[in-house]
Amino acid sequence: xxxxxxxIAKKEHSIYDPLYxxxxxxxxxxxxxxxxxxxxxxxTKAHTISPEASRAVYTKLFEPHISKGFSVILHPEGKIIDxxxxxxxxxxxxxxxxxxxxxxxxxxxFLKRSDSVISLGNITMSHKIAKAVLLxxxxxxxxxxxxxxxxx
Length: 152
Known about the structure:
Layout: E1 2-8, H1 17-27, E2 32-38, H2 41-49, H3 51-66, E3 70-80, H4 83-90, E4 95-100, H5 108-112, E5 116-119, H6 127-145
Helix pairs in contact: 1-6, 2-3, 4-6
């Protein structure tokens, strides 16, 4: 399986990089994970204009990635699911894409183009933490599907 995690984020080193790498290594026995971070001068400019302008730029950046494969958007107003339901998102897929939006979220029209919109919970977290939680849930989901004891 191929998994893409596509986010609006500056490509920069962070203290979370070793955690991302460790989780990706754990997942690698089940799937290949590509971490795609999108950010350009249009995002920076839009952030100075308005939330609506920012969401429009995010959509433009995400557009080439939404068309192929099963797509899941992480959104605060998405459905809250448990780890077993999350594992069902992974089950039987050849490719899956997870989208993590920018500071101003997603345009409604983009949300409607996805196969699933989920939330990681009712708390607000940074994009870097959300990516770590997502990676851990991907590993946990595969563990559930393969009856590995990690998920207990």
